[in-house]
Specification:
The longest helix has 39 residues, at 309-347. Helices cover 41% and strands 16% of the residues. It contains 14 helices and 15 strands. The protein has helices at residues 3-10, 48-51, 60-72, 83-95, 109-124, 141-146, 150-157, 173-176, 181-199, 225-236, 288-297, 309-347, 387-397, 421-438; strands at residues 27-31, 34-37, 42-45, 100-106, 128-132, 165-168, 204-209, 239-243, 267-270, 282-287, 351-357, 360-365, 400-401, 403-404, 410-413. It has 440 residues and is of the alpha/beta class. The strands form three sheets. A seven-stranded mixed sheet has the order 4-10-9-8-7-5-6, with helices on both faces. It is globular, with a radius of gyration of 21 Å. Helix 3 packs antiparallel against helix 12 (309-347) and helix 4 (83-95) packs parallel to helix 12 (309-347).
Length: 440
Amino acid sequence: MSEQQTVSEGSLPHWYDGDGDGSVPTITRGEGTYVYDDEGTEYLDFIAQLYCVNAGHSNDAIIDAMNEQAKRIPYVSSSKHNDTRSKLARRIADVAPDGLSDVYFSISGSEANESAIQFAREHQDAHKVLTRWQSYHGGTYGAGSLTGDPGTRATLERYAATTGTAKFLPPLPEVFGTDSPEELAKEAADHLEFVIQNEGADSIAAILTEPIAGTSGAYTAPPGYFERVRELCDEYDILLISDEVIAGFGRCGDWFGIQTEDVTPDMITFAKGVTSSYSPLAGVVVSDEIGDQIRDDGTDLGQTFAGHPVACAAGLAAMDEYENGLIDNCRDLSGFLEDELRNVADSHDAVSGVRGRGFLWSVTFADPETGDPFVHPWAADNDEDNPVSDVLETAAEKGVLFGSGRPAFQIIVSPPLCADEGEIREAVGVLDDAIGGVFA
């Protein structure tokens, strides 16, 4: 029996469609921007596995820090203090926007978002949280209720209802029917105010949103949009929570994605890149006022592995790597990656757009005759063949891994922050060839 068969029969995969076609590789090794399967096949990892291996694979500094911590003390209860944990909390607060001073650790991005909405509800004495349609905030019951992706919510709500959330429309041109950034910012913010008023501002604890969309399409907001969102939160006494599970820790060219918008939220949630995903770690960065309330009132909730010392050691080492050139590399090469992707868009009628920031980009596809997706997975028959999925498979066969967006009429391009010009050119060239082959 091959290793791939052993894994598929013994380990239940996530985000698995049940086809059992054996096409998922068994990854056994990684180095920098590359990963290798059990047969020795090399792949350029332009999904950073799940938008998270920001420092690249097999980074010795991070591995050494984890080993050193494990030798000193491998675990400390999350109800106790630990020097490594406290040092990482201070380090994260130092790079967060001014006014965010305290860190509450958790394990995953889903749990970080759930913790943030728990704090918001207690602080505001209100139960409702607003999030965007076409968003992803996690796959647990609480975080799934925040998610705008109907595939995730429908799966969770099949047997149990989730409550306490309401949705508003994302600032996308196709949603509001305008290509003018100024008009889009105004109409999207006006719509949000309409939702606030009709949900009842007093019932709303927070607005939770990604500053740059993650798997929902890497789209950015038009200039002025987030400034208006902040104004609405202040006017109606609503907290603003920035979901940085994907956008944080250098992925978009700054420590946090919201810093590329020059807006200060009341809380930031993070995960993935904080340790370059060498160990599970997540958390919430909260404002002075919320931090003081939690300290004064206490909390009856917690998680065994939250703020695990080995993970915190990985976080400190990863932050050193980001500070010592990786964020600069992302910022410096973002324009080059964008140009390469736009050249692909110009070469293929099937590519309808390119959007993103830093090292987080989406390539969208649509029928050039109708402007509609070739297949909309949230609206189409599940048996209908999606050519965008064929592009992903073809690129993987040619040695480059990209991600599938939500919904899957788009491809996510999200390399490790250590990717160089040559690797970007090679990966985008494979994407170009794959699109040409599928849509010939």
